[in-house]
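Continued from yesterday's entry.
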Amino acid sequence: MRPDRIIVGSDDERATAVLRELYAPFQRNHERLMLMGVRSAELTKYAANAMLATRISFMNELANLAEAIGADIEEVRRGIGSDARIGTHFLYPGAGFGGSCFPKDVKALIHTAESAGRSLRVVAAVEQANEAQKHVLGDKIRARFGQDLKGCRFAIWGLAFKPNTDDMREAASLTLIEDLLAAGAEIRAYDPVAKPQINGVVLAESALDAVQGCDALAIATEWAEFRSPDFAALKQRLKAPAIFDGRNLYDPAMVRALGFEYFPIGRKP
C-alpha cells in the first residue's frame, strides 16, 4: 500500500498504460513507478531479495565470529549500521531466514544463472550460510546438554518463519525441531498463530504452558509477546533456567542477573 517503488516490466504500451492507472492511487505524493524491460524487472525482483538475504547471512556469519573472538554483534551492528553507505536495515543476526520469498528467490537466481551458463558464487554462499545458521540453536543446545538428548524436554517459542504470520515455509524452527528430535529430545512448542501438526511436537496453549517441566527454552521467532515475559514464572517452570535465544530479544546482563543461563546469537559469553 505504501511502496518504495513500483517496478513494471512491460514491452506493451496498452499494458503499461493500464498499470499506470491501476497504481496511480498508491503514488499520489510522487512518481514511484519504474518502467523497464520484462527481463530486467524479473532480475530486479530476484536481485532485491537476494541482496537482503545476503545482508542477513553476512550478519549471521559475523555473529558466529563475534562469539568465537569475544566481540558483541550488537555493538558491531550499531557500528557498521551508522555508516550511511551501509544503513541499519536487515543487519539483525538470528537463527536463519525463511519464508516464501528469500529462500525461493535466492534459489531461483542461482538456477537462472546456471541456466545461462553463469555462476553466482556470492549468492550460492548466502544459501549455504543460511542453511548452516538454522542449525546454530540446536548446536548450542547439544553443547550445553550433550549430544544425546534422550530424557530431555525442550520448549520452543515461535514456529512461524517471522512474527505476525502463520507461514511455516522454510522456518528456522523446523530445522531446530528436526535436530532436537534426531538427538532424542521431547519438544513442547508455542506460537501465537501458527499451529502446525508436527510428529513428535506437543503444541502448548500458552508460552508459559510450553515451558512447564522443560529443561530449557529456545526462541525461534521474535513475536512481540516474547519480548517481555514473566521471568520469575519462567524460571519457576523450567528445570534448568536456560534460554537459547535465536533472535537476541533480551539484554544478556539483565537475564543472567535474574539467574538464567543465556545463550544468544553473537553476544559476549
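--- second protein ---
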Amino acid sequence: MGDDDLRSVARRVRDLVEPLAANVYFAPEAAAAYEAVGVEGFGPGYFASRGGCLGDVPGEVVAAAFGVFKPALVKECVDAAHRRAGAGAMVAAREQGAVASLTRILGADDGAMTGVPRATELLQRAAAAAPPGEGRALYSGLTALGYPGTPIGDLWRACDLVREHRGDSHIIAWVGHGLDPIQANITTELWWRLPLRSYVRTRGWSEDEIDGAIERLRERGLVEGESFTADGEALRGEVELCTDRQERPIVEALGDNAEELLRLLTPMADAVIAAKGYPRDPRTLTRP
C-alpha cells in the first residue's frame, strides 16, 4: 500500500473513531461516575481516568504519556484525584460513564446501532494488529484492560485502542521532528487552520511559555507572523505522514474491509456529533 492510500484510510478512521472514543470526556454520565467515587472537576476526572490504564503512577508519568499538556497541571490534577480514588476506581468509572453515554446517544439511532457488532469486530481486528510497547504507553495500558464484554463497551474500548495508538504514534512523530510539547500544540492549531494561540491555551501553558515557543518556531523559519512558512507547512505535513505510516499495521489489518468499517462508523460518529457529545466534527479539520 502506498502512502496516499495509507494516509487516506488512516485519517478517515481517525476522524470517525475520535467522537466515539472521546465522547467520554464530554459525557455528563462520566462526570457523575467520577463524582460518585469522590473526584470532582474536569481536570482531575480527565487526567486520572484517561491515565488510569497506566496504574497508580505519579502525575509526571501521566503527563509524559499525554505529551502535550503542561506537566505541572497534570500532576496537580492526578494528585488531587488520587487523594480520593485510585486508578482502578477511575478506570471503572470511566468505562461506566462512556458506556452509559454512548448507549444514550446511539440507542436513539437505529441505523447506528445496527452496525455495532460488525464495526466492533473490525476494530478489534485492527487494534490487535497494532504492536504494543515501542513508546506507546496509553495504547499498551489499554490492552491490559481487555474488553468490557458488552456490545457498546466493546465498541468503545476498540475505538479507544485505535485512537490512543494513533495518539502515541503522533507523539513519537513530533518528538522525532524536533518539536517540543508547546510547539506541537501550536503547529496543530495552524495545521487545523485555527487562530494562533487558541488550541494551545487548553493545555495549561502560560502566555509567556506560548510566546517563547512561537518565537522558537520563528527562529527555525517555521512560522512567520501568525501563519506557517512553507517550511513550517512541510514539516507539519511530515509529522502527519509519519503518524500515518505508524498506523500501517492497523490499516493493513482492515484490508479490503476498510471501506466497510468507514461506512459503519459514519452514522455512529454523526450521532455523537449531532448530540453534542463531541465538540467539533474532526472531518472538518483533517487535511487530505
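Strands lie at 223-224, 227-228. The two ends are 17 Å apart (CA to CA). Will compare against the first tomorrow.
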